[in-house]
Every structure is written in structure tokens, then in C-alpha cells.
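Q&A log
Question type: sequence-to-structure
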Amino acid sequence: MTGQKNYVVIFLGPPGAGKGTQAERLAQDRGLVKISTGDILRDHVKRDTELGQQVKPILDAGKLVPDEILIALIRDRLADMESVRVIFDGFPRTTAQAQGLDVLLEELGAPVNAVPLLEVPDEVLVARIVERGRQAAERGEAVRSDDTEEVARHRQQVYREQTQPLIDYYSARGHLYRVDGVGGMDEVYDRIVAGLK
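Response status: OK
Response body:
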């Protein structure tokens, strides 16, 4: 990674796999910017930009923001960067988004370097998510509506249906590598780092 200005990592993995935590750590260690499309959308709405005005009614209605708007938001975010050194967490979610992102990154001369896929068995994921809800309740905090066993199982199913095409897409391009997501945080992090090229 030394001597390489642009560096793009895309994290994939089911809800509860620890993507966010691991992406944050990798971003700090490697001088990368973690990009979450949700954060970008909220920022544009807050700043009342032209894009923000476009997406606010979509978000207010609980609908999905169209791919071309998401790509425009990412283009806008990356345009300010001297070199594109980023981690995408939670994007892309579909093959169409992955293709749009590829086109944008190609234009910027910053192709995808690595796509770690955190793999954790369903039973472990569901237990983690339910435990997260239990701990929040014990601390007297609001429990996330998705921290129940029923919702957790449903989300795993949706994830599998939506993400399998993405796994195939990045596998075919030689970017994807599988990471055993079971174990201590340091253990899993070391596995992620070992797979980076």
C-alpha cells in the first residue's frame, strides 16, 4: 500500500458481522476515509444542497434513493479528495450500484483494490444482534427495532438474496476475499489486513 495514492476498499458482510467497527479501525490505521451513503445523504439534507432537496422527500417517504442520485452523491464526495483513499461500508448494495461505482472510480483513476467479505454463521449473527439489544435494555437505552430475533433472521435472508449477486460480481473481478468473522475483534481484523493487496 505504500507509494500508492489511491486505495479503495469495499466491505461486504451480513448485519451484525462487525463491518462498521472493522471498517473504522482500518480507516484509522491506513489513513482512509470511511464513506457511508446514509451519512452523506443526511449531510446534504442538513445543508439543504440541491442534491439534499432532491433526496429529502424520498427519505421522508421511506423510499430507496435512486442509484443515479447515490452515485452523484459519491462523485460529489470524492471530487474534493486529492487522492481517493476510501472504505465503502453499506454501499454498493446492488450489482447496478457496483457497476455505477466502477465507472466513477475508473474516471477518477481509482479502481477497487479489495473487497473483504465478512462471513459469520446465521446462528452467531442472530445471537450477537439479540445480545446487543439485551445489553442496550440493561443500560436503560432504547433498543433498536431491528435487535430482535425475528427481525434479525429476516434481515439475514434479505441480505443473502440481495448480496449474492454482489459477491459474484466482485469474485469475477478478482477483488473479493472471504474473511472468517468469528473470533475476537483483533483476530478478525488481522485476517482482514492479511487479505489486503
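Response note: The CA atoms of residues 83 and 157 lie 37 Å apart.
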